Amino acid sequence: MKSQELACMDIAALAPLIKGREVSPLEVMESQLDRIAALNPDLNAYTSLYPDMALAAAKGAEAEIAAGSYRGPLHGIPMAVKDLFQVAGMERTCGSRILNEGVANADATSVARLRDAGAIMVGLLNLHEFAFGPTGINPIVGTALNPWDLTRVSGGSSSGSGCATAAALAMATLGSDTGGSIRIPAALCGVVGLKQTYGLASRAGIYPLCESLDHGGPLARTVRDAALVLQAIAGVDPADPSTAQARVGDYTANLGKPLDGLRIGVPRDFFFDRLHPEIEAAVQAALRVLDDLGASVEEAVLPFNREAVRGWNTMAMAEAMTVHEGHLRDHADELSPDVNERLRLGEGLSATDFIRARQCQTMARAEMAGVLEQTPILAMPTTVIPPVPIATGTMMVGDRQVTGWRVLGQLTRLACFTGQPAISIPCGFTEDGLPIGLQLLGGWFEEATLLQAADAFEQATEWHKRRPPLKV
Questions:
Q1: C-alpha distances in angstroms, 446 versus 205, 242, 246, 264?
Q2: CB-based contacts of 392: which residues, under 8 Å, 6+ apart?
Q3: Do 414 and 300 touch, CB atoms closer than 8 A?
Q4: Could you tell me which of 127, 39, 116 has the C-alpha nearest to residue 77?
Q5: Omega before 157 cis (within 30°)?
Q6: What is the DSSP letter of 39?
């Protein structure tokens, strides 16, 4: 166990030790790989691992730091990314048997920026096939298991990212979020998941699902670690025109600052409808903590939300269909059945349907801007239910049987539709020991304030310190 202790540390705690040469990147990587070897065969967080490449990079980082060329808090830190990102020297599959790209010769922009910051890529992480599902169940490459209960889903689509982060199989990870695919696994695995403002970080080199809604962002064990990763990947990229207006700030600047007077809106309609009772209780308790921290917690009204979610459905299904039309035509029988079914929902949509959805998006952004003028942060649950069993994909909530893939994304789609930043942070556990997530939404390019609120809650509670009961 001792050899794996370094792998379980937070980045912010480990970085000063690496900088001061009290710990070497090689020691850290050996610790990380030992833990992966012990736990990944059961958890299935990774679709592919590259330990020799990782060890060679760790030796290089060790030499750089010894020569006085310390790059910053991510230098020598083992990371992994969803098997949707291009990583030079690694072969992307998107969790599918259809893709046959071979080994990549270039990095996705966000991966390249992490490498520039000194981070070391360990491998590629499991996902719902082609990132098109909220459960993470993948019959093609196997499902990444939830570290808190190996019979449960990790959440999708970034299932491996949530699993690996929670189980300390990487110190931080990247996932993608089109309708909640970073925040859902973060909530179900008890870690932090941040979807930054649309256009703040490049999507170049990330396999697309929906051009208008896709984001690539961090999962980490603490808010501060997520801020450090965002700091590395944020910024304009000529290869992704959506980043042309990116406004980068100092994402650690407000951490530790009090919330006195910060107005936090709680939209109860829709977001608190038909919640699992233990999720409702945990989120209500979290709101009381925010109030105790000096924030002004008050009701907020989002009258456009239901229309926005319908607009998200239209845009997502139409754009996913354009990406995968050839796959449906030539390889439909090789797709996961649920992905095949979901992709076909885009077949009957018209140009008029899509244009109306884009008009709805413009309306929702304008109305959301008005809400945020009154309450700069919005607070709500991340999911309506805890992780469902992999075997059934369903659970009972009271006397109702609830299907996971139908409901797990319903509270996370709005922030993708508007493009505003959103974060999921741990806020409790069910009686069965399953994590619960609190979701916070902020204003466009106001990640520093969003992270401030998330960090204040995190520091006032103990939920982020709990670790899955894994035997190593």
A1: 25, 17, 11, 14
A2: none
A3: no
A4: 116
A5: yes
A6: H
List residues bridging with 237 in a β-sheet.
240
Catalytic residues: 82, 157, 181
User: For the residues 98-115, what does the mean pLDDT come to?
Assistant: 97
Residue 1: what pLDDT?
37
DSSP string, 182-236: THHHHHHHTSEEEE--TTSB--TTBPPS-TTT--EEEEESSHHHHHHHHHHHBS-
The CA–CA distances, whole Å, from 101 to 67, 92, 96, 136, 175 equal 38, 7, 12, 22, 20
Amino acid identity for residue 189 in this structure: C
Tens digit of each residue's pLDDT (9 = 90 or more) over 25-50: 999 999 999 999 999 999 999 999 99
R_g over Cα of the chain: 21
Confidence category of residue 3, pLDDT binned at 50, 70, 90: low
User: What CA–CA distance (Å, rounded) separates 302 from 8?
Assistant: 40
DSSP secondary structure string for all residues of 264-311: EEE--TTTTTT--HHHHHHHHHHHHHHHHTT-EEEE---TTHHHHHHH
DSSP of 350-384: -HHHHHHHHHHHHHHHHHHHHHHHH-SEEEEES-S
Neighbour count for residue 366 (Cβ, 10 Å): 11
Q: Which helix (H) or strand (E) covers residue 82, if one does?
A: strand 78-82
Q: What is the pLDDT of residues 255-282, one digit of tens each?
A: 999 999 999 999 999 999 999 999 999 9
Q: How far apart are CA 430 and CA 217, in angstroms?
A: 27
3-class SS of residue 403:
strand
Q: Which two tokens stand for residue 226?
A: 């997520």
CB contact burial 407-441 (16+ within 10 A = b; e otherwise): bbbbbbbbbbbbbbbbbbbbbbbbeeebbbbbbbb
Q: Cα dist. 150→189, 280, 304, 358 in Å?
A: 11, 24, 38, 40
CA distances from 341 to 93, 135, 174, 365, 381 (A): 20, 15, 27, 30, 28
pLDDT at residue 397 greater than cutoff 90? yes
What domains can you pick out in the chain, each with its CATH number? 2-465 (3.90.1300.10)
Point out which residues pair with 83 in neighbouring strands: none
Distance of alpha carbon 139 from its chain centroid, rounded? Answer: 21
SS3 state at 105: coil
User: Could you please report the per-residue DSSP string of 109-134?
Assistant: HHHHHHHHTT-EEEEEE--SGGG--S
Measure the CA–CA gap between 185 and 392, rounded to whole angstroms.
Answer: 18
| Among 430, 355, 458, 352, CA closest to 148 | 430
